[in-house]
Specification:
The protein is an alpha/beta fold. The protein has 16 helices and 15 strands.
């Protein structure tokens, strides 16, 4: 089955056929860097990182561009508030963005252009639009004439006459038409500015993405993405100015993720109902956030709450408990082998019926892998893909119960479940799950806690080897007092878990 993509431009699912076989060019609108990123930004970043990763899994060479808007009214206002330069504000919050996304396991784009580093490209585009008569100047400002672009409204499927009635249109009597939007803004005292044929000024918001995407991906590229709130006017305006400039189709597929809401109201900084990524990471692990985000289809709205993150945290335990159960059986098999005086026994004392059930695990894994790909091929349906992984956990756990009842546990007997675990981890890895640092109860510090626990278990093992039972028991009992249980295995290894 080929990958099917819901294209906002056509309003339907389409077969994904890139412009160049084997290669995907992809541009996603990034953030305006005047504050810390909130959980809504995390969803968009995660969605497109997963889409990129899945296309790579399917064998495509993906070139991914995601910009930073580093000059804007909000950045200028923040500069005044914090008493630092506009550039310092931008650098501060770009660094914070990169840190937050890195903690969530979101990979940086291949190319991360900044608006202020591409003024020349914007000026070339604006000058061409002016020469064509599609843009006009007023008092040092330059506006795009919407009525001179016949395709305006095709992405948002809005009627131009309806738009002129005043919906979301900034009133400016200098415009020839209320729908016209700024390509270049004359500078005001104290604002950052650049020289242009129309006087000192700075670019409008929309022109930067058209200029940067065309520079790095060409006049026409495969995928343009962003949040649904960008469809109008931002993406509509991008199409107008880019296609008026190049006279070519701008992007082939338009992909938009749904909003994150709180109590059914869109999360946004303007409304004040938002949580920053770093605030959420103080209480919950990156993996729990990822599970919450991807358990809803990317085009659907996602209602955020701490209760839902708690549910995601609990759901992650199912993966961890399954992995731990298989690992404990593996340690048991090693201890049996080390105690054997001859070749390991092949008498597992597992009935023929149970052996038949174990033999079918490989078939279940194959079916689960096929179902995973079918879900992801269907417009990147991560919710269905994750549901299939949970179903596969049930199959593995059934195998664990069968093997746990055997008199002799051998690596051969274990192979169906160990192979299945590796496949679960591999498929989940396509969605960005690593299952590291997600021991429950430690939130964002999980990875460091795992490293610390590894050290404590090693010290306890040394104490037991030297028969320092008092120290070994003190470590075990001290950890139990704070809710961490230690389990010793016949092989001499130990494992740990939070809770009983």
């Amino acid at each position: 089955m080929s990958v099917q993509v819901y294209n906002t431009l056509s309003g339907q699912k389409e077969d994904f056929v890139p412009l160049v076989p084997g290669k995907v060019t992809m541009y996603v609108c990034g953030v305006t860097v005047y504050d810390y990123c909130h959980i809504g930004h995390a969803r968009s970043a995660m969605v497109f990182d997963v889409i990129r990763h899945y296309l790579q899994y399917k064998g495509y060479n993906v070139v991914f561009v995601k910009n930073f808007t580093d000059v804007d009214d909000k950045i200028i206002n923040r500069s005044t508030e914090e008493g630092i330069s506009v550039q310092e504000v931008a650098e501060k919050y770009i660094a914070a963005h990169n840190e937050d996304m890195g903690r969530l396991g979101i990979r940086p784009a291949d190319i991360t252009p900044k608006a202020t580093e591409h003024i020349d490209e914007m000026l070339v585009m604006i000058e061409h639009l002016v020469r064509q008569g599609i843009a006009y100047t007023v008092d040092g400002d330059v506006y795009f004439s919407v009525k001179k672009f016949s395709g305006y409204g095709k992405l948002s499927r809005r009627n131009v006459d309806d738009l002129r009635s005043g919906a979301r249109i900034e009133v400016d009597e200098r415009k020839q038409d209320p729908l016209d939007f700024a390509l270049w803004k004359a500078s005001k005292p104290g604002e950052p500015s650049w020289k242009s044929p129309w006087g000192d000024g700075r670019p409008g918001w929309h022109i930067e993405c058209s200029a940067m995407s065309c520079k790095y991906l060409g006049d026409t590229f495969d995928i343009h993405g962003g949040g649904k709130d960008l469809i109008f006017p931002h993406h509509e305006n991008e199409i107008a100015q880019a296609e008026a400039h190049t006279h070519k189709a701008f992007a082939k597929y338009w992909i938009h993720n749904g909003f994150v809401s709180i109590n059914q109201e869109k999360m946004s900084k303007s409304l004040g109902n938002f949580f920053t990524i770093r605030e959420v990471l103080e209480k919950f692990s990156p993996e729990a956030i990822r599970l919450l985000m991807l358990s809803t289809h990317y085009r659907s709205p996602l209602d955020y709450s701490e209760a839902r993150l708690e549910e995601a945290t609990t759901a992650l335990k199912r993966f961890l408990n399954t992995f731990r159960g298989v690992e404990e059986l593996r340690l048991l098999s090693l201890s049996k082998q080390s105690l054997a005086t001859a070749a390991p026994s092949t008498d597992s004392t597992v009935s023929a019926e149970k052996m038949e059930q174990l033999s079918h695990i490989a078939n279940e894994v194959e079916r689960a892998e096929q179902a995973f790909e079918e879900a992801m091929d269907d417009d990147f349906n991560t919710a269905a893909a994750i549901g299939g992984l949970f179903d596969l956990l049930k199959t593995i756990n059934s195998g664990v119960q069968i093997i746990a009842g055997a008199k002799v546990v051998t690596p051969e007997l274990l192979r169906p479940v160990t192979d299945a675990v590796e496949r679960v981890k591999s498929l989940a890895g396509i969605l960005g799950f690593t299952f590291s640092g997600v021991k429950q109860g430690f939130g964002a510090e999980g990875e460091r806690i795992e490293q610390l626990m590894g050290l404590l278990l090693e010290l306890r093992k040394e104490a037991r080897t030297s028969k320092n039972w008092a120290l070994a028991d003190r470590i075990r009992d001290g950890l139990a007092h704070i809710g961490i249980q230690i389990k010793d295995h016949p092989s001499g290894e130990s494992t740990w878990n939070v809770g009983s």
